[in-house]
Amino acid sequence: MSFFIRQATLYDCDLISKLTREAFHDVADSLGISKENYPKHNAYCEPNWILEALNKNINYYLLETTTKTLGYLASKLIGNTMSLETIGVLPNYRKQGYGQLMMNHIETLSRRNNCKNLTLRVNDSRTQLKNWYIKQGFIENGEVNIPNFNFKVRLMYKNF
User: Fold this and answer.
1) Which residue of 24, 114, 133, 157 has the fewest C-beta atoms within 10 A of its own C-beta?
2) From edge to edge, which strands make up the β-sheet containing 139-144?
3) Which residues, at least 6 apart from 147, have a Cβ–Cβ distance to it below 8 Å?
4) What is the pLDDT of residue 148?
5) Is 142 strand, coil or helix?
6) E strand segments, the chain
7) Are the beta carbons of 3 and 63 closer than 8 angstroms?
């Protein structure tokens, strides 16, 4: 399957919010998250959330074929650090290497911007995902408690 990664624009807010809901719906279900107990979870993403993120200098990149968008990532450049804000792949396309392609893309962007490291946050209870990041060369670097989250968030980084 032929694919490409492109930077999203303001015109993609509806697409990104729909993609985010689809990519995170099963995650929310598996963690017992509902719109009532965590209305700001990605599974309930609205287009205005994406617009607000874009206005805060968060960049979105879409992984697409000629007919479908399969996944995305969002990142923010902060000094000499690239922060991976989120990455999502549609459930039917997981475990096919698309997440790896997007990680390669964010690492390339990081190096082009002379970043010294790439950081991310991950739900500590998502062991399989956390282990995937470790295989990508990320190192655990503590945890943070975020108000209204019913889980711990693990901080991770990768140096270049």
Assistant:
1) 114
2) 4-7, 59-64, 69-78, 81-89, 117-123, 153-159, 139-144
3) none
4) 65
5) strand
6) 4-7, 59-64, 69-78, 81-89, 117-123, 139-144, 153-159
7) yes
**DSSP secondary structure code for residue 115 in this structure:** -
Q: Look up residue 55 and give its two tokens.
A: 């206005």
Q: CA torsion 107→108→113→117, rounded to 10°?
A: 20
Domain 4-159 has CATH 3.40.630.30: yes
Name the residue ranges covered by the structural domains of the chain: 4-159
pLDDT tens-digit map of 4-33: 999 999 999 999 999 999 999 999 998 888
Q: How far apart are CA 125 and CA 48, in angstroms?
A: 28
- Asked if residues 33 and 125 have their Cβ atoms less than 8 Å apart, the reply is no
117-123/81-89 β-pairing: parallel
